[in-house]
Amino acid sequence: MKSSYDVVVIGGGPGGSSAAATVAGAGLDTLLVEREAMPRFHIGESLMPETYWPLKRLGLTDRIQQAGWQAKQSVQFVSGNGRESEPFFFRDHDTRECSTTWQVERSEFDKMLFDRAAELGAECHDQSRVLDVHFDSDGKATGVSVRDRDGKQHDISCRVVVDGSGQQSFIANKLGVKEVNPNLKKAAIWTYFSGAVRGEGDNDGATIIMHTESRNSWFWFIPLSRGITSIGCVADNDYLLKGRGKPEQVYQDELMQCPGLTRRLENATQLGEIRTAKEFSYSTTQSAGDGWTLVGDAFGFIDPVYSSGVYFALEMGIRAGDAIIEGFQIDDLSGQQLGKWNESYAKGANWVRKLVQAFYTSEFSIGRFMKEHPEHRGNVTDLLIGRVFHEDAGNMFDDLDASIERAKMTAMNS
């Protein structure tokens, strides 16, 4: 590593790698630092269709299509009694090339992004840990300290630090600007199966969201390549991981309450260990400052239910990269310049956040809402696709909020 760069990017996930690829491709001297050995395991395998566009911007769509990952053309919901909704086929709402997306192995996918940043000129180091981000007396980021894979420490100056450190949230935690949403403190327990029964025809690669009978938890069902399926349970952290014994037993207990899933696993074989993670939803009260900006989960995390994480991380990485490039061109690396994309991004992402909040409202049923307001099927599909950065994205929420209130009143009076 050198002692100075234009841009230092922390984290080799989708947010960090896309930011590094964008600025390096514009000729900026860029260092990308990832603490783990690449490729590394990561959860979050399901891609929203709108992911196609940042991948195209990065020049990766051909490689993605040739990688052999499971095609995803739809999303489906299953109620606690096992009743299945009609699939939401993306092509019914959008016939462009983005209507087919993918269920990816994140180790391979993230390595592809990391390598693309290197191809475009970034100096990329894995197994290298950022120890600190340095700020001057005025609060401007001036550099980082890094311990490389050989244990040597480097003090590096730079003009911009991009924090893509994921839920580690390096800068946000250092500056005290991270806020956890108290209503979305979730946890996940998951593993992998071979031989799970998938959907039929073009629905065979669908992400399926399945409620348990109690509605205290839900399962994701994500078909991957090579006949493997990722299956995870999500619920409130206190419900799932506190006082109920080992995660393996909790997983089985919740599975037995999910008739939509048990019949799909009758002849399936579990592969590997049970894994757990805290999936706390959080945001940041400040997402950019003089000489620094946040991307990906370091910026904020909503929830795994609609698989928005990878798309939003890529979108943020590219938007942040464009703001940095412009900042170098006009010699303005202020927080206002580096974060100029924050407001428009947050407005679009908020529609997904609102749909997540509706999902966790026990009285809400997406099937019932569709019956009440079939005219909003396109709006719902927009959100499932990830097409949220346009003026009409939130049109359905007045009707959705009213539907939830009616359901609550009915429940109170019954």
Automatic annotation (TrEMBL):
Gene3D superfamilies in the cross-refs? FAD/NAD(P)-binding domain
Extract one GO molecular function annotation from the record: FAD binding
Limits of the FAD-binding domain: 5-310
What's the Enzyme Commission number for this chain? 1.-.-.-
Answer whether the UniProt record assigns the keyword Hydrolase to this protein: no
Keyword Zinc in the entry? The reply is no
Keywords associated with the record = Oxidoreductase
Its domain of life?
A: Bacteria
Protein name listed in UniProt: Oxidoreductase/MT0587
Q: What is the lineage of its organism?
A: Bacteria, Pseudomonadati, Planctomycetota, Planctomycetia, Pirellulales
